[in-house]
Amino acid sequence: MDGTNALGDYLRARREQVRPEDVGIRSIGVRRVPGLRREEVALLAGISSDYYLRLEQGRDRNPSVQVLEALAGVLRLDADATAYLLGLAQERSVPRQQPRGEQAPESIVELITGWPNNPAYVQNKYTDVLAVNALCAALSPNYAVGVNLLTAVLLDPREQDLRRDWDELTEEGVAVLRSELGPNVDDARLKDLVGDLSVRSERFRQLWARHEVRPRRGRLSKLTHPEVGDLDLRSDKLTIGGTDNVTLVVFHAVPGSRDEESLALLGSLVAPQDAPRVRPSEHRPE
Description:
By secondary structure, this protein is α+β, with helices and mostly antiparallel strands. Helix content is about 40%, strand content about 10%.
């Protein structure tokens, strides 16, 4: 996590995940390395083996966009992963100081407070919860200000019981964190979060080693709630303007569905006087 060779580490990890037959190479005999060999990647990308070796070893850190796009094609990277690869090769800027006492914008807090039918919360790029409305808090005790959601989902057994899509959710969460890190290898908070999860979660270590990247986007959350049973909710993730990737996450059920009825039942169990609890989120994930 020192970031000294992020580009090389990523190339090597992705190379090991491409099967020779996926790129038209016949496998004869036993291969001693997983995925593609360095010289095979170089040949398919139209560059010399020595140059590719220098890229993986971090001895050449300024490949052209054309070379990186050629490598992305060989490694079968999608558009998001290709953008991530290009970002790794950019010259690193001086890391920005993270704001202390990061909070959700007051107007957003007022907005979600008035929503009786839509669970909603606000998180920063580290997945720390900054604000939450009452209906969202009723979905999980980990929808609470100050909780790091990625840590909670990976380490709290209650989350695995709650989420029927736990495998998919953890894959996505780790890939999004990898995207956030990207070339920002000097972000101390991100490094601390990755280090903490690497020590405490075998699942995280396995997923982190894949070097998969995804942008933060909406999804379908499949829950089994202890009070209302199975509940499938769509979510939208909206970046709040004027912030450092602070995101508003809003859930909703398909209109007229059984999920909408179950969500309404859950809402009836929430005391109407309950309001979102909002305070600065400074401490590290538990």
